[in-house]
Amino acid sequence: MRRFQALLQGESLERALVMGILNVTPDSFSDGGCWTTEVAIKKQAEAMQVAGADVIDIGGESTRPGAEPVPLQQELERVLPAIEWVRAVTDLPVSIDTYKPEVMRQAVKAGAAMINDVNALQASGALEAVAELQVPVCLMHKQGEPATMQQAPNYTDVVGEVRDFLQARAQAVMQATGLSAQQVWLDPGFGFGKTLAHNVALFSALDELVALGHPVLVGVSRKRMIGQLLNDAPVTARLCGSVSAAVLAALKGASVVRVHDVKETVDALKVAMALL
User: Fold this and answer.
1) Which residue in 169, 194, 222, 258 is the catalytic one?
2) Cβ-count burial of 161 within 10 angstroms (0-12 exposed, 13-18 middle, 19+ buried)?
3) pTM score > 0.90 for this model?
4) What pLDDT, on the 0 to 100 scale, is given for residue 29?
5) How far apart are CA 148 and CA 140, in angstroms?
6) 109 is catalytic
7) Which of 15, 142, 223, 224 is an active site residue?
8) Does the pLDDT at position 30 exceed 90?
9) Residue 96 parent element (H or E)
10) Which numeric CATH code is attached to 16-219?
């Protein structure tokens, strides 16, 4: 909790925050179906805390390429108990990964400390919800919707378009909610309506996003882009690639890395920062 609060207050940190991914879904691309019971969720949350996670991101709707939307009630039934279980066994802040205003409201009421929105608070009522809740948010860029976003991603200037979109959304959010720049995180949305070439260009230009003055979150853990860079390695063979990318993102100025493999990432970041 201390490091999470320090980032929100603009303090310098010895390493990037590690956000552990806890998908309580049956169909997420990497860990779908793994964490759907109280026992499993509590065990994984405890393991993440021991491993050094700074925040746990709970999601109840898969946004992998090809995923279909989940009804509101079903998402609530997945995430609300999970938030309570995680908070019962850890003292880590919880992030709710959702774009639905009602899920935001109920999740924060249940104890979530921030909102991670793949839709950058563009859904009807989302800005109003955050203005009421007054919790930090992470705004992500995506092109298209999960069901179809990887069919034909197209940009004239992917770095410029993503940067300008996130800057505009951040300004709109701060104006509507009163949140500070440190409370509005930016996520370029690797793999969300982007080819490998787009992803590589965005990663190479992370400094342009960092220069906007907001914490930047990078989430590439186990994603297809890692597999593509490793000669089409399957999800189960992307650990080293994912950890390498997380460390490089931190070295390029990212404030937060969102990962499946918490211990390995924390260890790698500690060593990298010590040797740097």
Assistant:
1) 258
2) middle
3) yes
4) 61
5) 17
6) no
7) 223
8) no
9) strand 94-97
10) 3.20.20.20
